[in-house]
Amino acid sequence: MDYKDELENRMKDKVRGYVGKGVKVLVFTLFIIALTFLIGYVVMLLWNWLMPDVFGLTTITYWQAFGILVLAKIIFGFGGGNGPGKSHKKAKMKSRNNKSCNGIRRDFSEWKYYDEFWSSEGESAFKAFVAKKQDHHEEQ
Fold this sequence. Notes:
This protein is mainly α.
């Protein structure tokens, strides 16, 4: 009987979690829709306040303002470009990469001599280095 109650409680918790997430998604969606309509209203108010006096244009309705807003978003983009936040992130990543790589960056033009060095001196120099390390290790 105890297992059955535990299972029932787990199912209730899962349902509460799913319902809670569903309510959050619904509230967020309604908030975005309300915000969109509010922005359209603000565009209408600003247009009707400024444009007739400044440029001699007529006043517009709410839906015309909403259409202007949508048209402006289509023409000028939806904010996915290189805004100040993205350029800041890119600069931060670039500076972090420069700081971490400064110690290991070298002039790679010298690497064209690597094969020649290894064939003439490299193997014998490496064997001498290993022998020196082994002698040093045996002394301790």
